Amino acid sequence: MNSKILIVEDEAKIREILCDYFSSKGELPVEASNGMQALELIDENEFDAVLLDIMMPELDGLSVCRAVRRTNDVPIIFLTALSDEEDKLLGYELGADDYVTKPFTMSVLYAKTMALIKRNQRSVLAGDRMEVSGITLELTAGRAYTGGKEVFLTPKEFALLRCLMQNKNLVMSREQLLVKCWGYDYEGESRAVDTHIKRLREKLGDYAECIKTVIKAGYRLEG
To answer: Domain named Response regulatory: which ranges (predicted)?
Structure first.
């Protein structure tokens, strides 16, 4: 299958064992020894899955997951010594797909990883396009079209449009849009959303009529 898997683990010995095991199964592991390195690799490469340790110095796995989920739907499995239910719930809330507690069996971890990859690939094939009110998004490619003509959006504009389309006919507050598109740790003013919506409307032209401003509430995409 030759899946490309990012293994993020600060303990060199564990990282080596994981890489060796996945390599022996014919997969293509890529290593990262810390959270910052992981984010750089994810920004520059396409991965089929990420195995992510939580307890790491400088930037922990939860922060990495939060950052990744702003723009990327790659399957994430947390590798951690934490077994408390609240910790697991937080991981799922931030967008993790699964949670494996150390010590774990390599064969089980491999099976979970491959199952997630297969499920994600089926999901992409089945739901890679969104169409609302003449606007089409190709989610994996990150492309937008109006009336069949491509519109070039920035990542933030694409994320905003995708969020509005996923929640069509529902009012989304500025705060909700910030959380989904900027991340939980965004510290800017919520009015930043207004600026991006304005630019998005300009690029969509006549098709932007479906994006309604709801006074003192936020925005709604009608479709």
So the answer is: 4-117
Residue the block writes with tokens 């993790």: 96
pTM for the complete prediction? 0.58
**Is residue 174 within 8 Å of residue 186, measured between CB atoms?**
no
Convert the pLDDT of each residue in 54-90 to its tens digit.
988 889 999 999 888 887 878 999 988 776 667 777 8
Peptide bond into 103 cis (omega under 30): yes
- Residue 141 CB neighbours (<10 A): 9
189 by Cβ neighbours in 10 Å (0-12 / 13-18 / 19+) ranks as exposed
Contact status, residue 97 vs residue 71, Cβ threshold 8 Å: no
**What is the H or E stretch that residue 140 is in?**
none
Fold for 129-221, please state it: Arc Repressor Mutant, subunit A (1.10.10)
Q: What is the pLDDT of residues 1-51, one digit of tens each?
A: 589 999 999 999 999 999 999 999 999 999 999 999 999 998 888 899 999
